[in-house]
């Protein structure tokens, strides 16, 4: 249980009730924090369980004005709202998840319990090569060749998109990862998967 749930407030939008952590209720110290540090503070409050994130961690961030000058710095926890990956980082991660599922199954466990702990967006944008150019159908021809060359990998990714919760796989041809993130994936405000808690979109 979150020991800071007393900071939970509610608001109603279009007839639906949502909750959020009222970080401003922490007082004057909060009002002096840079906006980026406020985002870290909200994340720590929302995810506080006195195990991976403790109340002392929340206080460390709240006391940023004095702590950020400490020699060597201080360590603070951060759980992003989501993780974004492209081919070169995302495919190996998906292979690891598949291997973990096999291991759990071999040990007699439920492999479907193995899923990313936070939402993952995997954008396939790094594998296309330019074999055709200077023609109206060059893009389509290059994409067709990409699918031929990488069919096994794309079939694996298609399986992963269906097999894992909390994972969205954006197919090739949709655009480069940064553009896709800004135009389609960024949410500004997230809502909890199982509870209607509002929180800022953050990504690593």
TrEMBL record:
It comes from Dendroctonus ponderosae (Mountain pine beetle). InterPro entries: Acnase/IPM_dHydase_lsu_aba_1/3, Acoase/IPM_deHydtase_lsu_aba, Aconitase/IRP2, Aconitase_4Fe-4S_dom. Coiled coil: none annotated. This is Uncharacterized protein. PANTHER family: ACONITASE/IRON-RESPONSIVE ELEMENT FAMILY MEMBER.
